[in-house]
């Protein structure tokens, strides 16, 4: 399938020769004929340049979605393709493509939260075009304007919703910029439905990017998405930005300061923010109150100082929390933050808390703008400090649920009481999971590429009286050089950046052969790719199966979803149970499993019961291997049983 790239409109673009000029040009007689060969004027045809796309990026995933739409509607790629050369070089063709289309029905959502529809092709009889419609919801009938063409799809602006999707409820919209701002996609969708959309995103991600596991029916059903306790005012970090024109004219009015616009939609005329590519935004309904106060302060400051800037910039707004007793007063010199431009005082919000801990009776929230300043967050009774500009999760309200879930999934099955467990936290940042999961393990080792984050991980371990954690600065694969914990007693947490893990790391992880892997990801598509590759392409991958996959809604109102996948290693000696677990028939099954010794006998005390919804495919395969064991020494009933 051709990679995605855009065709820019002809208007406003410099072109050396307009389409058809060769024919229209009046030719001068060549007086020097015979002496010198006259150079013919060159026709510079604009060429379509295909850009390489990462298959796990939204544009990469779109290629899978297009393929699926084609299959579902019995279409060939040829019938939806656009002739990019003619669109680029022929203004008639350009205008024919870039048009208004009425009554298009949104068929589904893309991974990016845009609607997808099929419209009639402007050039091909019975041909179709796949159109991306931002803010379109499945079931909507819409009027759209096509403004950009690509080889296999077009981009559009939503002009009008003619008939509403059952999922559309515009009265839920809580933001005056919704419909123009690129930040939120689902403000007009009931929250429970948003969670369903996110579950579908995870299902699709594994279908597209974990093809071997999907084909072999080796994936569990995706669990329901964990809601965020806060659905608005949850973001503890925002980064509004502004652009300045390259030509550097003396600006008399401040440029827009805010977030990127999503095309030029017209369906919500009341949406504010102006019509530039960066919208002028004064408040953000998903930001916390103090972040919004900081945004107001920094805007006022920017409006006074914008003439001093030579180029565009991004402003950091990061929430900081200080805890004080009732008697203590807030010391501004120790907690610099965004300043109210009228009063010249640091903006703060005080929250009184009622608890028995006399040390923490009020919380003071401020908004930090210096990336090097240290900020503090509190999660599940733990304190975390980190540099404002470094990575830290930015929905504090869901972190207790996520960290508990990860901790509960780290336990190694078949453990005997008092057997030591170890934890390796690859991509550990400032120690969020290392510290919140440290209680039930003998030792934790964290690795992180940012030396600054490691400095804070060490400091956070100390602050929280965690004595069993050590941290290493380096790339994730560095951990395998220094790791000395027994792999069959070690669980590994992976929480890489959006691009996921690289092959070198996954191969080393497989060679190390840990007992359990809990993979947390802000890009479920790279996670699905990595899980498929790890299980099917690495040396020991076949020893693992995916026990569960669950989404966590870190970003309500947006299309983003965080996913946690749990991979479990089944010891080879449990070959019979290994086979049972890897089998699947979508039934809800419970299995009692025990480790077996060299002779295949159950090892006392190693029994574990698994609730294995969706892991058994027909009794046949399981029964065969178990019957063989049973025949050897009548072990069947002792080793395992399953019930529905
Ligand atoms: C998504 S963050 C997770 C951080 C931490 N688990 C948390 O939740 O706060 C990914 C982290 O991986 C780090 N990182 C990026 N590439 C890395 C690599 N090759 N090896 C180790 N750490 C890396 C980044 O600096 C960042 O702190």
Automatic annotation (TrEMBL):
Top-level taxon of origin: Eukaryota
The answer to keyword Transferase applying to this record is: yes
Enumerate composition-biased segments (Basic residues): 36-49
Region of interest (Disordered), ranges: 1-53
Q: Where is the active site?
A: 522 (nucleophile), 522
Alphabetically, the GO molecular function entries are: double-stranded DNA 5'-3' DNA exonuclease activity; single-stranded DNA endodeoxyribonuclease activity; structural constituent of ribosome; tRNA (uracil(54)-C5)-methyltransferase activity, S-adenosyl methionine-dependent
Might you give the EC number(s) for this enzyme? 2.1.1.35
One Pfam family linked to the record: TRAM
Basic and acidic residues: compositionally biased ranges: 10-30
Keywords (A to Z) from UniProt: Methyltransferase, Ribonucleoprotein, Ribosomal protein, S-adenosyl-L-methionine, Transferase, tRNA processing
Q: Where does S-adenosyl-L-methionine bind?
A: 393, 427, 448, 495
Q: Which PROSITE patterns match?
A: RIBOSOMAL_S21E (PS00996), SAM_MT_RNA_M5U (PS51687), SAM_MT_RNA_M5U_2 (PS51622), TRMA_1 (PS01230), TRMA_2 (PS01231)
Domain TRAM per the UniProt entry, residue ranges: 103-158
Which residue intervals define the domain Methyltransferase in the entry? 424-480
Q: Which GO terms describe its cellular component?
A: cytosolic ribosome; ribonucleoprotein complex
Which GO annotations describe the biological process of this protein?
Answer: endonucleolytic cleavage to generate mature 3'-end of SSU-rRNA from (SSU-rRNA, 5.8S rRNA, LSU-rRNA); methylation; translation; tRNA modification
Its UniProt entry gives the catalysed reaction(s) as:
uridine(54) in tRNA + S-adenosyl-L-methionine = 5-methyluridine(54) in tRNA + S-adenosyl-L-homocysteine + H(+)
User: Which family is this sequence assigned to?
Assistant: Belongs to the class I-like SAM-binding methyltransferase superfamily. RNA M5U methyltransferase family. Belongs to the eukaryotic ribosomal protein eS21 family.
Q: What does this protein do?
A: Catalyzes the formation of 5-methyl-uridine at position 54 (m5U54) in all tRNA. May also have a role in tRNA stabilization or maturation.
Q: What is the name attached to this protein's record?
A: tRNA (uracil(54)-C(5))-methyltransferase
Ranked from the top, the taxonomy reads: Eukaryota, Fungi, Dikarya, Ascomycota, Saccharomycotina
